[in-house]
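Sanity check. The docking grid for magnesium ion depends on where the pocket ends up, so I'm generating a full predicted complex first rather than guessing from homology. Inputs follow.
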Amino acid sequence: MQDALTIDCVPPAVLEVVRRLQERGHQAWLVGGAVRDLLRAGRERPAEDWDIATSARPRQVMQTFEKVIPTGVKHGTVTVLSQGEPVEVTTFRGEGKYSDARRPDEVEFLEEVDDDLARRDFTMNAIAWDPFTGRMRDPFGGMRDLEAGVIRAVRDPLERFTEDGLRPMRAIRLACALELTIEEETLKAIPAAASSFRKVAVERVRQELEKILDARLPSSGFGLLAETGLASLVLPELAPLEENDWNRRLRAMDEVPPGNRPIRLAALLASSGERKQIESSHAPILRRLRFPKATISEVGLLVSVSNWREVDPCRPADLRRVLARVGADRVEAVAALWRALARGEAHGSAEETVERLCSALLEEAGRNPPLEAASLALTGKDVMRVLGLGAGPEVGQAISYLLDLVIEDPSRNRPETLKKALEGWRQA
Ligand code: ATP
Ligand code: MG
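Predicted complex below; grid placement will be based on this.
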């Protein structure tokens, strides 16, 4: 396993930082997720995702490099711009006292790397490696645990989870993303740490949730959240769901290929049209979790067309309405969502139906039908001229009316036909 750690896995920008710190007589080690992931699979990482731990104080780090950003000097972190890339350097530190389960009140800087490793969350994240000498520090048996595929808290799990309430969620996210299991005592401590978890800032929770959504099988993370009781704190809005419905949503999420967060969120939050459901309205949930506005509106669009049973593949106008609502460039996303929702259902019967529907939708999109005001055969100016109106809300209404006619039947999209339709609209 150790063989996976070779110096050529490390970006030159990162090596440069380690070398310069060591030249000045400081200790400098690679630590954290990058070392862990190299040990697992020799995975490549961008420079910015490497963590360097050093005996140098933040001030000394800042003196060693020309370009630095004092990202979190109080907590010992300085970002060094090395060969144009940001590299995080953190001074060895302990955790000080936690009075709020969020951030240590004060950090104490330390001299020894092992003492720094002791404040880290899980044994596999508490391994240090010197890429130049090949030396390793692994005081808590992280390599052994990694080999066995288990996530184990460094020292006493409940104590560590009470210090920082995010750690239970990190355990679940890491288990889900890296497809490992959580060691028994560590897992048992999660429900016991619920009151600390409640105090964690929602942004930190959301970031972990996003990493769960990006995993190959997000259902395993959501399953663990449910099993440990965290689900009712992370997503209280979904707590009233019946077990079948919850499981169906998790299966649907797994059926969306990774890398499509909004589609997966839509699969989780769209209510099934089959039975009467509680209305798990997506927007307030995502806003509460402080998802970016763009994500919220993307999920909203997808959820608004999620009820595929309402769409008749034999009615092209139905298909065009779906496309008009979400925008033709989302056709693949809609198809991915529909497939996932159908596959998430317990009985396989829906799959063929949804396949036919998706082909029909993609085919209709391929015909490039007029779906928006800009593709109407009359411009806004034409409409104003025909109606003898100046700019105003009525023009907008007239355009929507025309668009509706054209979506229903694209052959109507000719100036003469639309002019006639406008006359009729004026009289009505
Ligand atoms: P990822 O692969 O997602 O980056 P990571 O383990 O590297 O996972 P980071 O947030 O980048 O996660 O943290 C880097 C390292 O800092 C971790 O490996 C761990 O050693 C330590 N760490 C991060 N968050 C905590 C925490 N809440 N409590 C204790 N140690 C932590
Ligand atoms: Mg990391």
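Relevant for the grid: Strands lie at 28-31, 51-54, 68-72, 77-82, 85-91, 128-129, 136-137, 150-151, 181-182.
Also worth noting: The chain is about 50% helix and 10% strand.
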